[in-house]
Amino acid sequence: AQSVTQPDIHITVSEGASLELRCNYSYGATPYLFWYVQSPGQGLQLLLKYFSGDTLVQGIKGFEAEFKRSQSSFNLRKPSVHWSDAAEYFCAVEGGSNYKLTFGKGTLLTVNP
Amino acid sequence: DAGITQSPRHKVTETGTPVTLRCHQTENHRYMYWYRQDPGHGLRLIHYSYGVKDTDKGEVSDGYSVSRSKTEDFLLTLESATSSQTSVYFCAISTGTSVEELFFGEGSRLTVL
Description:
The complex is a heterodimer of chains A (113) and B (113).
Chain A: E1 3-5, E2 10-14, E3 19-21, E4 24-26, E5 32-38, E6 44-50, E7 56-58, E8 64-68, E9 73-78, E10 87-94, E11 102-103, E12 107-112
Parallel strand pairs in A: 2-12
Antiparallel strand pairs in A: 1-4, 3-9, 5-6, 5-10, 7-8, 8-9, 10-11, 10-12
Chain B: E1 4-7, E2 10-13, E3 19-25, E4 31-38, E5 42-51, E6 54-57, E7 64-70, E8 73-78, E9 87-94, E10 102-104, E11 108-112
Parallel strand pairs in B: 2-11
Antiparallel strand pairs in B: 1-3, 3-8, 4-5, 4-9, 5-6, 7-8, 9-10, 9-11
């Protein structure tokens, strides 16, 4: 069965600083990978996804992620964080098993002014 | 907007009482999911459905049952609520024939006293 690890529970960055959120997955073949964002009191919104092809994928709100098969990673990046990016971020994997997503435990992002 | 409505949005109940949460969609998508979200656990799949009367268990299905008698409605039932089922419950739908993207409802916060 597939699994996802987000090593960082909570990250604090200053506004304008760069951001990288880590995600490692476990799956035997090439998985489908996703990043979702959740603002307080809201549901989850898809930021970006990787299925195949170019390993650097662009998403909404200026986010990008890079799939690295050798490291089983799918890290999320943003060059300059805005205060509105403060939220919880979830990495997820779908490994071809009846179209179910497995989520990581999330990384809470705090942005300091 | 994928047209997902969850009801009730908030509910407080007592241990041992039955509870039903409803997820309604307006666009006749085939796949529907129930997740629960708890601090430190991320989102965990409870049950999912791949068509009318076609449902299957997720990773945390004990104590929960589901029904889907119409395409647009997916019901989650706690036959006898326990305090460990205090959580935020999210319904999600998949708009494609596979998990290309999940759209989430706004969540139902359940407190079991």
